[in-house]
## 1
Amino acid sequence: MLRLTVDELAARAGVTVRTLRFYGSRGLLPPPELGPRRVGIYGAQHLDRLELIEELQRLGLTLAAIERYLDQLPADISALDLAIHRALLAVWAPETAERASVEQLSRRVGRELSDGDLDQLVAMGALQRTDQDGEFLLDPGLLPLGARVLDLPIPLETIVAARAVVRLHSQAAARDLHRLFRDTVWRPFRESAPAESEVERMRQVSGQIEPLLTQALVTAFHRSLAEQLAGGGEDALPAAGD
């Protein structure tokens, strides 16, 4: 059984004692067990939770977002459950956002970006403004797609509305799929008391599922769009060439 002082925990996690105390004051870390002379004793759960916090920070989540994420976890969550969370986050989470100046973004997309271009890329979610003037957080997966849309005659209001529609329905799909996999795959796996090697196996299986699920969602959307176009009527989009 792992038993660490606050100094030992800080050394193992690669953070400062001050950071640990700050996390504790925000409720990100559960309180330690009190040992002899009221010395705080930390265990594997604290170390795993710190690694989960680090993983969430790498994904670009703010401290407030991390607090909301951790608030959803059971208070008595085990070290094994935290290890499973980290394994699944590493597979299912999007690419980490990168920082870039307007000049760097222009080189990346192969054209000089105007203020209007930047507004459109922000509206599409490919960029996010930061506190630094002229610096943005970019989504590596969305930026190339957003750059291709810049030359299309699509009003900014339409892009904003389209993103809202996509986010609304993708969030609903993600919520239902998460519930399905949680109840039929991850929960039985967790209850089987798996070894550390089996946690890695679950991570590998999740990595194989993710691209298949993404392709299934894209294919379903294409088919649904084709059905809408074939349906005709006022809601149908104009045919190519009209």
## 2
Amino acid sequence: MSKIYNVGIIGGGISGVVTALELANHGIDSVVFEQESSVVNGPPFCHLHAGGNLYPEISDEQCKILMKQSIEMARLFPQSIDERPTFISIPKSEQQDIKNILERLDMLVTYYEALIEKDPENEILGTPKDYYKVYNYEDLTALSNKPTIEHPNTPDEWMTNAIRFIDYKKLKTPVVLVQEYGWNLFRLAAQAQLALTKSDKCNLKTNTSVTKIRDVRNQKLDHNWEIHTQDVVYKVKYLVNSSGFNTGKFDESLRLNSKRHIEFKAAYVSKWQAIPGLIPELIFHGERGTPHGMAQLTPYCDNYYQIHGMTKDITLFENGLVQSKNNGAQPEFSDDIKEKLNRGWNDNEIKDRTKKAIDFVAKFVPAFESATLGGPPLYGAQQISGDDPSLRVGEVSFPSKSYARSEIIKASSALTVANQIIHKIQEESIIPPIKTKPEQNQLLNSISKKEIDVFAGELAIQRGYPEALSRLLIEKK
């Protein structure tokens, strides 16, 4: 193939597509290789993490980074953001102190104020004073006696709808309602793929596996890498390894050694009875990996709910977290996990884990025991760079010239990585210096809500999920 691309991107996950979109927005051409038939296939995400309140164990600095990056991504993909709050609580069975959460929330309010002062467009989570609201036992009792609001607009209305279902006698008080929003994978995938397909600056190659990468950097050619697929060789000047939990495989092929963990996780789709009024996402904190691990109930349209239970019987798996060896960069899952990653789930295991997930939530939401299986699990594996498996903020590394390794852990880091890569490409003179940065991604903005609605629904169905999972609870204009 005679064409030479400025950038070749291996992997059409969220990091790969956001990098390609930002390159296109700057007029830089790329070719993206995705082995599936559509982009952004996993691991699944459902929560914006605008403050990291689902992770009591991480540092304040990671929480601030997650907030900043989440706001940036929400501004980039507004049609994928479900603007409903999140209920945060600690069961009485847990040692964790609610005071620690409140101190962190105050820190995040101050940081959010600083982000807005820097750029008023960052005010996407409501006003800083409304970022969170605290409810004591008496507040909850009073709200539980108020009528349901079909479409809640205030924190009290959201809490009124939720608290009638929650056994709050099992929870430490106060509890918190915080403006951490939902994030719809199918809608982001739809907008990204439609935009990349429309762009004349990106050659998106779906259903395409990379079989080999040839390093020609020392041959004084007008390109640095040759990317081999089954029947075509693509020439590129700069290589981006954005292949998610398989990142280490390409490192090994390039004789690069790097430390990382990879982790397999799953969430379960359930169908509950129709309830009056929308409810927030519900979080019941607990120690990860123990029988009391965090329970997370995420509402979707048409009475579908996604469940995480951070125990080895539900979301986490025996041998689901593995580390690279000293003699290699790619950790290896067990055969059982590999089979699941290749859509080899056993039907009985799906039913069993979904039932356990439902029962886990029902400890705090008793009426939820009537929920049933609503579809196949949402699952996937993520990489965690370095030695610390509790790390939740990852970005990008540049282990050698003309090569970038995306190491995101949370989807919110994707835009940060794209900008770092673009800076590095300029630094290495692959492209001329960019004098002005566009304020918005015009390519993404050119995709209409109707186009996103239609294609997101198609993607959900193609992947075997209910179409309702592609829609937002809070309809956007």
